[in-house]
Write a structure and sequence with these properties.
Blueprint (H helix, E strand, L loop, with lengths): L2 H14 L31 E3 L4 H14 L3 E3 L6 H13 L13 E5 L7 E5 L1 H15 L6 E3 L6 H12 L4 E3 L2 H5 L14 E4 L1 H7 L3 H7 L4 E4 L6 H9 L4 E7 L4 E5 L2 H5 L7 E2 L3 E5 L4 E6 L15 E10 L5 E6 L4 E3 L2 E3 L1 H10 L7 E7 L3 E9 L6 H8 L10 E5 L12 H13 L3
Parallel strand pairs: 1-2, 2-3, 5-6, 5-7, 7-8, 8-9, 19-20
Antiparallel strand pairs: 3-4, 9-10, 10-11, 12-13, 13-14, 14-15, 16-17, 18-19
Helix pairs in contact: 1-2, 1-5, 4-5
Length: 435
């Protein structure tokens, strides 16, 4: 596939929205780019920024941007001043690549931001197409139909659409607020069924309504990513017989590189599944997850990298079936009194008590131990401490949280991903105030 073919496929996918019967969004065919029919234009050497709050506006803008021939930057229309300043700084501090260098890694997908350092991972028609081919082969289909409630500037939302566009399937953008309120769209029957991508916090909210649970059962596969899901949430999903696929991937790999099949989930597996055909997963001697394959990015803009392997910040292991188990992040390991604490291990113990709807274990500065293990939970529910203390008995003393901190508002990105660094700062402030 070349950029011209991608432009035509993306433009054609946008044009198809004109003909669908949907109440989710009004569609103006005048917004559709000519990318479905025209050749890729001569690049100008200037970056094209794609940002729109409404999905169909974003899709139309991206269709035109692909046909522009220039470097394309996907942006969040809701970015604040901090993210805008970082974006402007990136574009002004570096010379935009010359026209002759735009052929590879021209699609910039944001990663970070919302309290972290904003970066753009370089992708193009080759990395996107490789990820789509691997996805289709893994799930044994030739045409992908998907409903999307994740933002399109985010890799998970973008790839849900790209899988449809590149396989001549149908993509339906859905409004998250409407879904959360119980307003479900009626999706027409398809021979290959429908896929739906969610993050754990979204799934938890949708499971609160019986009618929404019934609607979720109608999907061929519900892809769950964007962060670890807690045991109680997965139990509820299994009890509801939802066709869940736990997956692992990131912006740098054009979304998922491993995925659990729904029938494996319903049989009791709770790992991130096996590698998709286009990808390879290895565990380095220190436990770091390494990912390789044709969907691996070309580097963080403005740099380029020739390697097709990416060493992640995640720790994991491969079992006898070569299914991936994520054990946490290297940069989130808490060092307290010289001992290492994996937050996910402690969180699993706390969530298993049933006393927490959500919980996050973080390290806050301590003058004697270096870091103090603290468990943060939502402020709208007080746990039974007798139950919690009993659960602590199963943990080594240095792993047990020294404090439980109740916080009403948790810092999350638009896709629902928890910003642990920002949460740790909030917890530290509360601890300092004696909360």
């Amino acid at each position: 596939m070349d950029r011209l073919e991608l432009a035509r496929l993306v433009g054609g996918s946008v044009a198809a929205l004109e003909h669908r019967d949907s109440v989710d969004y009004a569609f103006d065919p005048q917004r559709v780019s000519s990318a479905a029919t025209l050749a890729v234009m001569e690049p100008t050497g200037r970056p094209v920024l794609v940002e729109a709050a409404q999905p169909t506006d974003f899709m139309a803008a991206l269709a035109g941007a692909v046909a522009s021939g220039d470097e394309v930057f996907l942006c969040d229309a809701n970015w604040g001043e901090a993210e805008r300043a970082q974006l402007n700084g990136l574009l002004q501090s570096e010379i935009i690549n010359r026209k002759s260098e735009i052929s590879e890694g021209w699609l910039m997908i944001p990663t970070g931001g919302t309290g972290g350092r904003l970066r753009f991972a370089r992708h193009d028609e080759d990395t996107i197409a490789a990820a789509v081919r691997g996805f289709a082969r893994h799930f044994g289909i030739t045409r992908v139909n998907a409903a999307g409630a994740l933002p399109l500037h985010h890799v998970s939302g973008l790839m849900a659409w790209m899988r449809c566009a590149l396989t001549s399937g149908e993509y339906r953008p859905l409004g998250w607020k409407q879904l959360e309120a119980g307003e479900m769209s009626v999706l027409p029957a398809k021979p290959d069924g429908w896929f739906f991508s969610l993050v754990p916090t979204q799934l938890e909210r949708l499971l609160r309504r019986p009618a929404t649970v019934e609607w979720l059962r109608g999907f061929r596969t519900i892809l769950l990513g964007g962060g670890p899901a807690w045991p109680d949430l997965l139990k509820k999903a299994a009890d509801a017989q939802l066709p869940l696929s736990l997956s692992y991937g990131m912006t740098e790999t054009a979304a998922m590189v491993t995925a659990l099949q729904p029938h494996e989930f319903l049989l009791g597996r709770r790992d991130s599944g096996a590698a998709l055909p286009h990808a390879a997963v290895e565990i380095l001697p220190d436990g770091t997850v390494r990912v390789g394959g044709y969907s691996v990015f070309h580097g963080y803009w403005p740099e380029r990298r020739p390697e097709r392997w990416h060493d992640t910040d995640d720790l994991g292991r491969l079992d006898e079936a070569r299914h991936l188990h994520i054990l946490g992040r290297r940069d989130e390991v808490i060092i307290t009194g010289g001992e290492k604490v994996n937050p996910l291990e402690v969180e699993a113990v706390l969530l298993a008590t049933g006393e927490f709807d959500d919980v996050a274990v973080v390290g806050v500065p301590h003058p004697e131990w270096g870091s103090e293990v603290v468990a943060v939970h939502p402020a709208d529910r007080a746990p039974d401490m007798a139950v919690v203390e009993k659960a602590f008995a199963g943990l080594a003393a240095f792993k047990r949280p020294k404090r439980l901190v109740a916080l009403p508002d948790w810092p999350r990105g638009e896709a629902g991903k928890l910003n642990r660094g920002a949460l740790a700062e909030l917890a530290a402030c509360r601890v300092q105030r004696g909360g």
